[in-house]
Design goal:
The structure holds two protein chains of two kinds. Chain A is mainly alpha-helical. Chain A is built from ten helices and no strands. Helices cover 80% and strands 0% of the residues of chain A. In chain A, helix 5 packs antiparallel against helix 6 (146-172). In chain B, the strands form two sheets. A five-stranded mixed β-sheet of chain B has the order 3-9-8-5-6, with no helix packed on it. The longest helix of chain B is centred in the first third of the chain and has 27 residues, at 2-28. The chains are: A mainly alpha, B alpha+beta.
Chain lengths: 276, 119
């Protein structure tokens, strides 16, 4: 039972952190619960499908299907998160201000919500498919521990939910003005971390072998397999043995986000005051 | 507004596309790898200890002979791979320094253990 609890919790942990952040980011957007709930549900359903076809998926691309699949869904999440940040830089003020009730803003808000719902769905899909496989494997053996494993699984799920709520309410304690800046930085780091992870998967699939030298090893200080290390891994993309490629991809995503937010963010401020 | 959105998407896709040629060219000149056969049955790895030379990429051909799925995991080697029941998997490991690297089936972490010794 304890083993089941730990395994399920470890898988759900990352998804819980991401959902908590997304909930905090969208707290002022109408209908956000339906969108994010939809994302979670879609993720759970997709996780079951992925688990059912795990064998077939793995055999694709000369046995590297799993790695490439993970890399692909991480890239989708990175694009969605970056798009959200750029979109919010442009429309965040309207949404938070008096225009919030305007029909247009609601429609626009939903567009960014779709991106975040996809991110939530992808996170649940990735972690969920492993939980499904694990539980399926245990139930398939039948016998003595099935009940204990179910209890352990539910316990792990509850702990994951708690991480989600702690993240959410933790972020909500930040004053509204600072919250936007905080979550923008958080989402940019989240996206950069996911991009570096995608690079790591491509490296494992041997699709990306350039700059594969490990730059440093800080495993003695903080292993990315430990719970604090895993939290940092999800939040800012911490890895104890990053390759040069992972670092490059990480910094490139931060730079791209920054440049795009500068280019397309807040056009009203640049144009309107000039004419008076 | 919609034009700038299309533009920003274009920039992202351009960045992704720019990385692809690097992947394609570098895959061609990968070093010859050491191939190791490993099987898994009744929560046991066979052989429980495998070895490989240092500083060469390693490919582990893993056969899961159990009907259940397993997750081949090694924290030190940074491997996490789900292997469906009664199926094979290929695991690429980058060139390693000499040392002993433990791996487990994450679903049966306590009993299903093995190690890769790099010399």
């Amino acid at each position: 039972m304890i083993a089941a609890l730990i395994i399920v919790f470890r898988e759900v942990f990352e998804a819980g952190l991401i959902i908590g952040i997304v909930l905090a980011v969208t707290r002022t957007v109408p209908h956000r619960n339906a969108w994010i709930g939809g994302g979670v549900l879609a993720g759970v359903l997709a996780a079951c499908v992925v688990a059912a076809f795990a064998g077939a998926l793995s055999n694709l691309f000369a046995g590297m299907g799993q790695e490439l699949f993970n890399a692909a869904i991480l890239v989708i999440a990175v694009v969605m998160l970056t798009w959200h940040n750029v979109w919010m830089a442009r429309h965040g003020a309207e949404l938070a201000g008096e225009l919030r009730v305007a029909g247009q803003a609601v429609v626009e808000g939903s567009k960014s919500l779709l991106a975040l719902a996809v991110v939530v769905g992808v996170a649940v899909l990735r972690e969920g498919s492993e939980v499904v496989l694990f539980l399926y494997g245990v139930i398939a053996t039948g016998g003595d521990t099935a009940w204990g494993v179910t209890l352990g699984g539910l316990g792990g799920l509850a702990l994951g939910l708690m991480i989600c709520l702690l993240t959410y309410f933790g972020l909500l304690r930040i004053p509204a003005r600072a919250l936007f800046t905080t979550t923008t930085i958080l989402i940019a780091l989240l996206a950069a971390g996911m991009a570096a992870q995608a690079a790591a998967f491509l490296e494992k699939a041997n699709w990306l072998t350039a700059m594969d030298n490990v730059v440093w090893d800080s495993g003695w200080l903080l292993s990315d397999a430990s719970i604090p290390g895993k939290a940092l891994h999800t939040l800012i993309g911490y890895t104890d043995q990053p390759t040069a490629m992972q670092l490059t991809v990480y910094l490139a995503i931060l730079l791209i986000t920054f440049v795009l937010m500068r280019l397309y963010g807040a056009p009203a401020k640049a144009v309107v005051p000039a004419r008076g | 507004m919609s034009r700038s959105r299309t533009l920003s998407k274009a920039v992202i896709f351009a960045a992704v596309a720019a990385l692809l040629p690097i992947a394609a060219t570098s895959a061609a000149n990968a070093q010859a790898a050491t191939e190791i056969q490993l099987s898994y049955k009744d929560k046991k790895f066979d052989p429980a200890e495998i070895s490989a030379p240092a500083n060469t990429p390693i490919v582990i051909k893993l056969k899961n002979l159990d009907a259940k799925p397993m997750e081949f995991e090694s924290k030190t080697l940074k491997i996490e791979k789900v292997v469906a029941g009664s199926s094979d998997a290929t695991v690429n490991v980058r060139a390693q320094k000499p040392g002993r690297y433990e791996f487990v089936d994450e679903y049966n972490e306590k009993v299903a253990r093995g190690a890769l010794v790099v010399k």
